[in-house]
Every structure is written in C-alpha cells, then in structure tokens.
Amino acid sequence: MDLEEQFRQAFEKIDAVLREAGLDFGSVVEMTSYHIGLRDHFDRFCDVRSEYVSEPFPAWTAVEVAGLRRIGAVVEIKVVASIDTSRPE
Question: What are the tens digits of pLDDT across the range 51-73?
Fold first, then answer.
C-alpha cells in the first residue's frame, strides 16, 4: 500500500467511527498523528489531511516515532471529537 493510500485509509476509518456516532470531521477538536519518517512524507500527509479536515482546524500534534504496532504502518491517528449538545436533533 502506498503512503497516500495508507493515509486515506486511516482517515476513512476515523470517518466511519465519527459517522457511527452521528458526527463528522467538523466535530474533531484535537488530533494527534504518529509517524514513522515524518519528515519524508509530511507534505503528502498534509495534502491528504486537507481532504478530510477543514477550518476551523482542530488542535493538531504530529509526532515522529520509532515504530508502530502494525507492521508496515507509517502513521496512526488519534482524534478527540466533541458532541454539541446545544443543537436540537
């Protein structure tokens, strides 16, 4: 799997979880991404990220790590989303 495909797959999995909760990427208030080779693919990651996340952007921390649990993975993403309880359903 190429890098961009792996990035999109990670965001698609997040999207599925958000939708299951009745949310979307606009509900994300914080994002942390863990990368192997961050400097080598940061611009490509940002390009893919921009397909899913838009203004107002959530707080974001990108961290370079030595390894990830899944063999072959170069990125893992954690998000925190907020449910707006003031909006009627």
Answer: 999 999 999 999 999 999 999 99
DSSP string, 28-39: EEEEEEEESSHH
Separation of alpha carbons 29 and 6, rounded Å: 23
* Whole-structure pTM value: 0.90
The phi, psi pair for 10, rounded to 5°, reads: -65, -45
Measure CA 77 to chain center: 5
**For the chain, how far is it from start to end, CA to CA, in angstroms?**
40
